[in-house]
Amino acid sequence: MSRFPDVRFLISAAAAAQFPPDNGAEVAFAGRSNAGKSSAINAIVQRRALARTSKAPGRTRLLNFFEVMPHGRIVDLPGYGYASAPESERRTWAPLIDALRARRSLSGLFLIVDARRGISASDQGLIAWADPGERGVHVLLSKIDKLTRSEAARALQAASAQVAAAVSVQIFSAHASTGVAAAQGKLAEWLANKKTPVSSNEDTGAD
Ligand code: GDP
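A: This is the predicted complex of the input protein with guanosine-5'-diphosphate.
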């Protein structure tokens, strides 16, 4: 049985004014382009193609909101790390993700990091942006099926040593279903932690 049976797409937001009401709890998913973020989201919510794994630049630069349980959302952030991303694009999305961080419902950040590459400077930037301690930060070391068991253990150790104690790290593979249950558990825990009151007139339609 699916852990999140009622997942649905809400909106691709190009401006903060389009964000859904700031109620309940929200968890952001971020990572370098190609880190395996879309595959991770799809594996965690058990939908084959909820988040797009194809690269459609116009779409991936937007913040995509999905409702995964009543008053519990995930937000798929644009992949970063393309040196070629035009400055104009970066100027657009920086204020957008800052507006996201200002939301009271933002309970945590899932950061997807290719286990073969490890945590980069831009990943560290995202972790700092999320302000661990203020909200949860959980790193998925993705594509772990590409590593041997001892390489995976080393990658986990190295990544854990690179982040503050408040940041949790786990190994993950969308293809081999490694660590999916643990990631689902973390997501469910954060979404259950509703920081903001939910009023009936802001009901998002879950029934
Ligand atoms: P995104 O750009 O971060 O959303 O990454 P995608 O989910 O689109 O994946 C990028 C590439 O990595 C694709 O070719 C995927 O098939 C591949 N990939 C994603 N997850 C895994 C995994 O668990 N194992 C392996 N071996 N490849 C993966």
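The helical segments are 37-45, 57-60, 87-101, 121-130, 149-162, 180-192. The mean pLDDT is 88.
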